[in-house]
Amino acid sequence: MSGNSNVTEEVDAVVIGAGFAGLGMNRRLRDEMGLSVRVFEAGNDVGGTWYWNRYPGARCDSESFLYCLTFDKQLMQDWEWSGKYPEQPEILRYLGHVADRYNLRSNMTFNTRVTSAHWSDLTNRWTVGTDQGDSVSCKWLVTGIGCLSSTQKPKITGQDSFSGPSYHTGEWPHEGVDFTGKRVGIIGTGSSGIQSIPVIAEQAKHLFVFQRTPNYSVPARHGTVTKESLDEVKKQYDDIMAKARASAVGMHYEQSGQSALEVSEEERNATYERGWEEGGAKFLFGSFNDIGSDIRANDTASDFIRKKIREIVKDPAVASKLSPVDHPFGSKRPLIDTNYFDTYNRDNVTLVDIRSAPIQEITPTGIRTADGEYEFDVLVYATGFDAMTGTYNKMDIRGHDGLALKDVWAAGPLTYLGVSTAGFPNLFMITGPGSPSVLSNMPVSIEQHVEWISGVIECMQKDDLATFEADEQAQTDWVAHVNELASTTLFMQADSWYLGANIPGKPRVFMPYVGGVGAYRQKCDEVAAAGYVGFHLGKESISA
Ligand code: NAP
C-alpha cells in the first residue's frame, strides 16, 4: 500500500511530539477512534516544552486549573494542582500521569526525531522518516511539535572558546545545575530570563545579566493553592472551561469593557494598582480593553509599569536601564514575574546594558562588551526560539510533486486556519501558524485542534475520502485576514518573535491569529458545518 519497500511500519496516523498536543491527539485517534497510531518524540519521555525547559524558576503563566486537558472529566476532578501557577516539575508530573493513566506511551517511540515526511500522490499516503532509520507509512500526519521548540542560540564571536559550561534555558540538563559559589552570566531578559534570573541570583556568587531590550513585567503573585479553592473550581469546571473556550485568550477571566481613556487619571491608576496587587493576567485583561489597540491607552499602562520599576529598583540608573521605552506594553509577550525587578537591588547582581555597549565577543573567561570585560564561570543563554516555523523548517516535509514546505513558507508561513497548508494533503498542524496558539492558554487551543482534526478524519472515514487539502485561495484569504487583524494591533510595534524578528533573516510576518480563541473556534466550526468549505476533499479512495 505504501509503495515503498523500505517501510518499517504502516499505520493510519503518525503524530509528531508527545507534549499536550501529542498526548491528546494519540488518545483521541487511538483510543476513541480506534486508529493505528505511531507517535515519535525526540525526548526520552512525554512532556514536550516541559520536558526540555527545566531551567530554574520555569513555570507556566496560566493558572494551573486552566492549564490541563479536559477530555476526561474524571481526570480534571482527580488531579490536585499545588501551585497557583504550575511549575515545570508539576506540569511534567501531570503529563506523565496522563500518559500512565491512558497507557499512552505504548505506541510512542522516544529518543527519535522525525527528519522527513514525503507525500505520495500515487498512494495518497505519507512516508515519515526518522533519525533512527524508521520509515513509517501513514494516511494522516499530525504535528504536535509545539510553537517554541527550536532553541535559538545567537552566533557570537568566540562563543566556542568559553572555558566553562554553557546552557540554553530550552535545553536544560535533567540533573539540574548547581550555581552555588559560581559567577554566572546570563544573556536574555524575555520570559525565560525573567523567571530564571531571580532564582539563579539567590544561589550564585554573582550574576551578570546581559540585557539588550528591557521588558515590561507585572508580579505573578505566585503561591500555593488551597484544597478548598481547587474544590470550588472543580464544582464549576464545566462553566469555567466553557468561558475559556469562548474567550479571547483561552482563560475564563472577564475582559474589561472599559477604555483606559474614558476614566479619570485617579480611577485609572486605582485600576492598575488593583491589577498589580492581584497580579498575573488580571493586570492586562482586568483593566482596560484598549491597551492592546490604542497607543494612548497603552501609554498609561506602560507609564504605570515604568513608575513601578522606579519605585522597586533602588539605583535610579539601573531602574532607567530596566525601563522599556522602545515598544508598548503587551506588544511583546506580556511577562509576569516573582521578584524580578527586586533582584537588581541585590549586591551580587549586575545589569549589563548591551544595547548601549554591545557584546563584542565571548572569551574563555566571560564576555567582553564595548565598555568592559565581565568574568564568570557559567554562561546561560535565555535567548529564545525560532518560533512557530523553526521546527517545521528543520524537517524535510514534501507535498505534491516533491514540493518542500520550507520553500513554500520561504516568505512566511502560509496556512488555512493555521491547521493545514495547500499542497500538503492530510497534514494537520496542531496550533500551527495562523491559529491563536501562542496568544492563548495553549491546552485550550491544542484541544480545539485535536477535536477539529479528529472531526475531519471521522468525516473522511465516513465518506471514504482519500485526501483533505486546503484550497490555495482560501489560504490566501486567511493569511490576508490574519495579517489584517494583526495590523490593527500594537503587536506590529515591537521586534518580537511573534514577527520572527529575533531570527536574523527570518521574514517579518506576524504569525499567530489575534482574533481570539472564541472567534477562531467559531470560524473553524462554521467551516466544518459547511462541509469543510475552503478545503478540497479527494473522493477517490485508493481502497475503492
Ligand atoms: P524571548 O522572549 O525570545 O527572549 C529572548 C531574550 O534573549 C530577549 O531578551 C532577547 O533580546 C535576548 N537575545 C536574543 N538574542 C540575543 C543576542 N544575539 N544578543 C543579546 N540578547 C539576545 O525567549 P524566551 O524568554 O525563551 O521566551 C520565549 C517564549 O517562550 C515566551 O515569549 C513565552 O511565549 C514562552 N515562555 C513562556 C513562559 C511562561 O509561561 N512563563 C516561560 C518561558 C518561555 P531582544 O529582546 O533584544 O531580542
Question: Could you explain the architecture of this structure?
Answer:
It holds the Pfam family Pyr_redox_3. Belongs to the FAD-binding monooxygenase family. The protein is α/β, with parallel strands linked by helices and 544 residues long. It has 2 domains: 9-150 and 387-539, FAD/NAD(P)-binding domain (3-Layer(bba) Sandwich); 159-381, no CATH class. The chain has 16 helices and 20 strands. The chain has helices at 20-32, 49-52, 73-78, 88-101, 191-203, 227-235, 237-246, 265-278, 281-285, 295-312, 316-322, 390-394, 405-408, 442-462, 472-487, 517-529; strands at residues 9-16, 37-40, 108-109, 114-120, 125-130, 135-143, 166-168, 183-187, 206-211, 217-219, 335-337, 349-353, 359-363, 366-369, 372-375, 378-381, 396-398, 427-429, 467-470, 535-538. Helix 1 links the parallel strand 1 and strand 2. Helix 1 (20-32) packs parallel to helix 14 (442-462) and helix 14 (442-462) packs parallel to helix 16. The chain is globular and about 70 Å long. Bound molecules: NADP nicotinamide-adenine-dinucleotide phosphate (NAP). NADP nicotinamide-adenine-dinucleotide phosphate is lined by residues 60-61, 148, 154, 169, 187-193, 195, 212-213, 333, 354, 382-385, 438, 497, 502.
Q: What is this structure, in a nutshell?
A:
By secondary structure, this protein is an alpha/beta fold. The protein is built from 16 helices and 20 strands.
Mean pLDDT: 96
CATH homology group of the largest domain:
FAD/NAD(P)-binding domain
Question: Roughly how many Å is the radius of gyration?
Answer: 24 Å
Q: Between the first and last Cα atoms, what is the distance in angstroms?
A: 13 Å
CATH topology group of the largest domain? FAD/NAD(P)-binding domain
Number of helical regions: 16
* Number of beta-strand segments: 20
| Number of self-contained structural domains | 2
Q: Judging by the overall fold, what is the CATH architecture of the largest domain? A: 3-Layer(bba) Sandwich
Q: Globular, elongated, flat, extended or rod-shaped: what is the shape?
A: globular
